[in-house]
Design a protein that fits this description.
globular; 7 strands; single chain; alpha/beta
């Protein structure tokens, strides 16, 4: 199964490389292929990023932005950005979490993560978006539904569209279902736009740590910021049946920032936060150590975990996550290190 999947993914990436070469150049396209291989290597080596890999990744991102600018063509030049008068609505206090099959069918680690968010949500309502209820919150074009049912648009791609659509319509905070939370989330709701931000953290994504697609928020009055990202995403899938890059959602954010500097300004104003976001995931298989936990939770309240791996539950950090015992000694915003 793994071998067949490897062959399938390699064929997909070769196809994507050919499509990129037709729009940019063979040199640039081959660099994107090599950079994607760098990402796969980093996934397996603990995300160690060599200077050569960083250079290839940054070149890849520049190539992909040019690719989208050229292939979107007249769509970008004719797109009308509408900035409405500032207004308020209680919907922008919502925390949006998606688990397509329903939370009752989620892995234990996902259930534990969602419960941790509930513990720290305060007055913010939580909506679990599923296959059964998503139409209550967003309007998705029929052609998207058709491509989803045909398997052209994957569940992951559809989730990317959902987050843009929810924020563009309601505002609020989107968090992936695999976030473990150990502090009050009020700090994420200050200002017009928020995302986890770790400047120059890694370069696998075009975001380069300046935002994170798995954690996005806007006020109701600033929901227009996510409208072009949603519309760019729709334009791509209306004109394509194959994914050009796994991190398409991040490219749509950066493309919107480049087209509209006012959007880039909003993202630039987000202060750095949650610097240790990835560290708990690295510790899940290790024996629980209170001092280690204190150090990584000193200035971080949101930790990105995964449901795609197996972990030991014998007095490990994973065991504490599942039991709900993993909590910060002082969960005040002051100690969360998120001064927004």
């Amino acid at each position: 199964m793994k071998f067949r999947r490897l062959i399938k993914r390699t064929a997909e990436e070769i196809g994507a490389t050919i499509r990129i070469a037709k729009v940019t150049s063979w040199g640039e396209a081959l660099n994107t292929f090599r950079a994607k291989a760098d990402i796969q290597k980093m996934v397996r080596n603990g995300y160690r990023e060599s200077p050569a890999a960083k250079k290839r990744l940054l070149k890849k991102h520049a190539t992909m932005i040019r690719y989208f600018e050229k292939t979107f063509g007249d769509f970008l030049s004719s797109y009308q950005l509408v900035i409405p008068a500032p207004e308020s609505n209680s919907s922008d206090q919502t925390i949006w979490i998606c688990w397509w099959q329903g939370l009752e069918n989620a892995p234990d680690i996902v259930k534990a993560c969602v419960e941790s968010i509930r513990r720290n949500a305060g007055h913010h309502p939580i909506v679990i978006v599923t296959e059964e209820n998503y139409r209550e919150y967003v309007d998705i074009p029929e052609w998207v539904e058709k491509k989803r049912k045909q398997g052209i648009i994957s569940r992951t791609n559809f989730s990317d569209l959902l987050r843009f659509s929810l924020l563009a319509k309601h505002g609020g905070l989107w968090l992936d279902a695999t976030f473990f939370c150990c502090g009050n989330l009020d700090s994420c709701f200050q200002g017009n736009v928020w995302s986890i931000k770790r400047p120059d953290y890694l370069h696998c994504s075009v975001a380069c740590g300046m935002f994170a697609g798995y954690s996005l928020r806007c006020s109701y009055g600033a929901r227009w910021i996510f409208a072009p990202m949603r519309d760019y995403f729709l334009h791509y899938w209306e004109n394509n049946d194959r994914l050009i890059d796994y991190l398409l959602v991040d490219y749509m954010v950066v493309l919107a920032e480049k087209q509209y500097p006012v959007i880039a300004d909003y993202f630039d104003q987000i202060p750095p936060n949650n610097p240790m976001c990835d560290e708990l995931c690295n510790l899940l298989n290790q024996k629980y150590d209170e001092e280690q936990w204190r150090k990584i939770s000193e200035d971080t309240i949101l930790f990105k975990l995964t449901w795609k791996q197996s972990f030991s539950s014998h007095d490990t950090f994973f065991d504490r996550v599942l039991s709900g015992e993993l909590r910060r000694q002082d969960a005040s915003n002051k100690d969360a290190g998120i001064n927004i």
